[in-house]
């Protein structure tokens, strides 16, 4: 499996309700050299494609600002990676943003990132959605073994990144409000994620704006790390890069897995090769 900290992840975004045939004609690829792990739109004629980008975990690569990417018309959703500890120092979640913000909030594993908070607000003003991702491959997350731990995490996330009250002094991005959360669990233990999502959605209903949930499952269905939570999210960012590539031999099985997901807003289809270069295979 390719390490998340070194791979270049491209997620082709396609708005769907059922399965789709992905070919060379509606997929395109390029190498990406930026701190944003980028996704490229792969929409058929007549559909509305979107582009998602994971920010932070590929190293700075000479670029030190989130806001530099917010003016790009090619990016619709930016996912900040990661909240990689669910319950750590001080009983609160912990974070790793790959060097873009290193200062810890005393007594916690949270990061003090007021400048990134201002950049988040600027991104949103430019029409981008900004999500906070939970998990990642290189992670020290605690499993959500019961409803209590899932509820506690959901409550804390809402206070730290959303509109909840009670942890104002611990908020990583100050007064900036993210637009939702992404689940990128890769530990093959899906316990608690359905409860986490329902807890967050209950909080979303009390908010002053619309919030979103996404998940990044592996392609084969069911996904052991995300489980039934795939049916509770608004977006799916499917990880084809760690799975057999879509080609003539694998296409039927891959598309069967995609169709099994049922209600799908976004689907990715890419391959990351051995040296980190992204290539597509079609018909």
Automatic annotation (TrEMBL):
Its EC number is 3.2.1.14. This is chitinase. Residues 49-283 form the GH18 domain. GO terms for cellular component: extracellular region. GO terms for biological process: chitin catabolic process; polysaccharide catabolic process. InterPro entries: GH, Glyco_hydro18_cat, Glyco_hydro_18_chit_AS, Glycosyl_Hydrlase18_Chitinase. The keyword Hydrolase applies. Belongs to the glycosyl hydrolase 18 family. It catalyses: Random endo-hydrolysis of N-acetyl-beta-D-glucosaminide (1->4)-beta-linkages in chitin and chitodextrins. It is an enzyme of class 3 (hydrolase). It comes from the Eukaryota. It holds the Pfam family Glyco_hydro_18. GO terms for molecular function: endochitinase activity. Residues 1-19 form the signal peptide. SUPFAM superfamilies: (Trans)glycosidases. Keywords: Carbohydrate metabolism, Chitin degradation, Glycosidase, Hydrolase, Polysaccharide degradation, Signal. The keyword Signal applies.
């Amino acid at each position: 499996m390719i390490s998340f900290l070194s791979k270049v992840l491209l997620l082709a975004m396609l708005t769907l309700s059922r399965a789709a045939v992905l070919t060379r004609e509606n997929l395109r690829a390029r190498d990406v050299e930026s701190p944003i792990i980028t996704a490229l739109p792969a929409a058929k004629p007549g559909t509305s494609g979107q582009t998602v980008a994971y920010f932070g975990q590929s190293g700075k690569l000479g670029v030190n600002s989130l806001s530099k990417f917010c003016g790009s018309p090619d990016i619709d959703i930016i996912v900040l990676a990661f909240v990689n500890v669910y319950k750590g120092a001080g009983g609160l979640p912990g974070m790793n943003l790959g060097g873009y913000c290193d200062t810890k909030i005393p007594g916690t594993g949270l990061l003090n990132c007021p400048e990134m908070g201002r950049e988040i607000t600027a991104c949103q003003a430019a029409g981008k959605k900004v999500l906070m991702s939970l998990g990642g491959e290189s992670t020290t997350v605690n499993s959500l073994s019961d409803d209590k731990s899932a509820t506690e995490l959901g409550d804390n996330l809402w206070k730290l990144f959303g509109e909840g009250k009670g942890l104002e002094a611990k908020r990583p991005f100050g007064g900036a409000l993210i637009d939702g959360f992404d689940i990128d669990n890769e530990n093959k233990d899906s316990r608690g994620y359905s409860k986490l999502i329902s807890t967050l959605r209950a909080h979303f209903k009390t908010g002053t704006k619309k919030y979103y949930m996404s998940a990044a499952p592996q392609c084969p269905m069911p996904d052991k790390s995300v489980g039934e939570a795939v049916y509770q999210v608004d977006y799916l960012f499917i990880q084809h890069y760690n799975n057999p590539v879509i080609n003539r031999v694998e296409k039927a099985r891959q598309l069967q897995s995609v169709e099994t997901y049922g209600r799908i807003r976004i689907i990715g289809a890419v391959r990351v090769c051995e040296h980190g270069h992204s290539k597509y295979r079609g018909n």
